[in-house]
Amino acid sequence: MDPSPPAAAVSEANRPAGFRFTLRGLLLAAAAIAVIAAPARWLGLHYVTSVLVSVVLLLGVSVALWRRSTIGSFVACAVGFISLPLLFHAGLMPNSVAIHTVATAFLVAVTIPLTDSPRVRVVACGLAFVLCYASYVWGARQRQLRIDELLARYPPQSVADRLATVTSRTQPVSADRIETFDRLYDSVPIWSSRTHLLRSLHNESARQFAVAPGFGFSRMPNIAYVDDDRFAAAPSYRATLPQQYALRRTATGSDLLSAILDHSLADFGSADRTGLVESTTMVAGFAAHAFTELPAQQSSDADRESRPIVRLHRLELLGYAYHPDPVVYISDTLPNMETVAETPTRSPNGFEAAALDKLIAGDDLVIESPKSPGSVTQMLGAVRAGKSCTSCHEVAAGALLGAFSYELVLPENYASTSETIGENGFE
Length: 427
Prior knowledge:
Layout: H1 7-14, H2 23-37, H3 40-66, H4 70-89, H5 95-111, H6 118-153, H7 175-185, H8 194-201, H9 204-211, H10 228-231, E1 243-246, H11 253-268, E2 276-279, E3 282-284, E4 309-319, E5 327-329, E6 345-346, H12 350-361, E7 365-367, E8 376-384, E9 400-409, E10 419-422, E11 425-426
Antiparallel strand pairs: 1-4, 2-3, 4-5, 4-9, 5-6, 7-8, 7-10, 8-9, 10-11
Helix pairs in contact: 3-4, 3-5, 3-6, 4-5, 5-6, 7-11
């Protein structure tokens, strides 16, 4: 008697397994969909795109494996790889899809010699999907916590109560002069500025990009990975005057003093220091105007001996736009608007009063001639509003807000002439 099974039985054994829908299976599928969709509310479109592509890949591979078609499963993985450049070109290419595709193809290949059970192979591919996205969602949660911490540290606030009413007016200045002040105040490149980071922090799309799992870092900086010191404003300079130091510029005469004023304006008036300013009632990461270093100080010891040495006896802020009568804030440190309310004031001295009239008329720097080599020189430099200043200060661009009053001992090779820098340069 022939012991071999009938042909019908062999055909039945080789037939691919069918799908059976049960109540338990439907409940498990519904639970899986709910778990997968849950992070979509806070991860947004990036996560939804990533998951949808991976789910389609998983379904394609699962159907092929269930039908015992290993080649079909590899074809599904190949289609997944082919779709990645298309997604990337559309700006939707997540790293999570690429990693999930690689993991699925690897498991399909590894399980070929280990088991012929379609159920086991499908479950293995399902676990690859779960582990891949569980790790990404966990990472996204950590990034969300980091962003929440930054938002709590740099919340929107109002600075309207810090600003008084403008009481003094000045002559308008040319567009070129306004542009010069703008360049000084906006000297920090926008893409490396804390203003840009704070804008990203308070932008919903940028936050979703930073939190969303699996997206590359080349398209924009991920604010969740930025160090704390990039968000914080530089600390203000606290040492008392006088201070003697080397200058970073080797210029002589008026150019040297003009360089000192330019650096003072760029440091004290830096728009990057004031943070993200949309209006007086919406400011994030605000830090009061202040000096962070001595004006035009040489930052390293390189070539220090060849640099001119200056001794800064006094640098005080002269308040003009917000005062009925000009005042000078008395301080033995560099000006700092954080402490200006408690700082005593005095009336301008004779040189400051005369020089201020020239600044009101449109000049930018007035220099008193030194009486002898090594004697103290006075100069008064204009602090004018740039375009970025008008977000808070209710003045026109170019308006005179105040001035820096300096007393300093200059290098011996300084040209001892009294000069004024005005609309047409030095006069």
